[in-house]
Amino acid sequence: MTASANHEISSIVSEFLDRRREPIVAEWSGSPFFQGSGGDREQAAVDCAEVLTGLRRAVVAGEADNPAADGFAGIRTLLEVLAAQRGDDSRLVVDTAASIRSLRDPLLRLWHEEDLTDGAVAPGAVLLGAAVDTLGLVLLDVALSAGRDTIASQREQLAELSTPVIKLWDGVLAIPLIGTLDSMRSQVATESLLQAILDQQAQVAILDITGVPTVDTMVAQHLLKTAQAARLMGAECVISGIRPQIAHTMVQLGIDLEEVVTRAKLADAFTYALSKLGLSVIPAATGDV
Amino acid sequence: MTQTPSTEAVAITTEPDIVHVRQIARQAAIKAGFSLVQQTKLVTAASELARNTLVYGGGGQAEITLELTASTGTVHLTFTDGGPGIPDIEVAMTDGYSTGSGLGLGLGGARRLADRFEIESAPGKGTTIRMSISARRSA
Amino acid sequence: MVQVPIINIHGVLLISIQDELLDDSISELQQHISEQVIEQQARGVLIDISVLDVVDSFLARTLHDIAATTSLLAAQTVVVGMRPAVAITLVELGLILPGLRTALSVEDGLALLGRGNGTVRTGPR
Q: Mutating which of C83, C88, C92, C93 best tests the B interface, going by the most B Cβ atoms within 10 A?
């Protein structure tokens, strides 16, 4: 189709979308897509009108098949709200297809009721279909982005919850690390540890890795960096809970923890910490209990 | 929804300008929703590059751009100077701390702190350094 | 030039950095410390950076140099109060400043210096 013929079809279609706005909005308002949780038809009508306007803008700009077109970008926020209202997106693709169908079918029906020249009917229908399909793509993208954000946010919350800082003694604290240490969790653990060193003015911080299944080069790097940062602050890090298999792996990987003191057991690390503070544990005098 | 990025330019011709660049970078980092550690990294990188621009580049300018989307905040830093240019970029990027060479440390350090880092430089053509740090904005 | 106050506590010079310093001031401070160590026959230098929220490579290198210089002048330097975010950033930069002695607070720093060659060491061996 020539460019001018395309342009002509776009004009006819966009004029249709404008002139027949009311019936289109009326049809769309009944769609589950716009119902949301409140079932408020007035609000649904307002939302429909806005989506229709965005769609029309994209058609007018000749960008009906571009999800990044201004017309679609302008209604993203509204689509985010509508997607959030629908909540459960475990059947995201199927639901989105159904939503799009519920918008496309009435739109095309109204289009075919128009009194048009033969040459305009089919191309116009194709254009309308393309615009609605693109809307579907934008819907999917919006839902996926929201999902990604939720996952990332929850990961962070989980990381914070799973790195508790324990005060073992005045000036001695411990962080038992549990589970696989990815980059993000390591950073959260490091920041928590260093902040605790500051808050408690702890001279010794014990990082216990008994609950960490594997220590590879990256994890060792994080541990080393944590110890280096603690030292710059004026505290010492001790790493405890190094199981024989882990020690073995670390040697094989050529991991060198340099001057960082390590101990197999948390208890030994605690004894070390006490000695650094010039303290020791002695039996209580008998008869005093 | 993406807002239009906003940019602030700072001329770097004297030492106090380095501090000024740090302040603008700090403000942008805060608006981008950076954590304290991320802010510190950005401001430190900005300081390294600003000093490099002044001392090695003979002066120039910094552009600090804040870019916000619904879920992320990014601060872009661009440093330009019309100085002698860097003959061998890879060598210049190598940490020169042990030899005390100021040039190497500034660039290499900033690169370590950045999420994205690129440098354009050639002898006689000055230097342009672009870097950015992004962070997910807290919900 | 911004004059950073120096207080003598039993032979230890306490320097509390209050503001962001310009490069020139940092270099002058380095010079000033060396002179004062000699003039006051100090046995130690305590640099308190707890107010600083940024320490870049220039300052870090200077702190390291101050420690090296005072060591030659028979005085030990301890840097105290480095903030967590600053420590993390310096490590990321690769500036772990080996050989620079550190302490959590002025009090801990004084204790460290007070014991002569450092029975209680928080630095690498």
A: C93
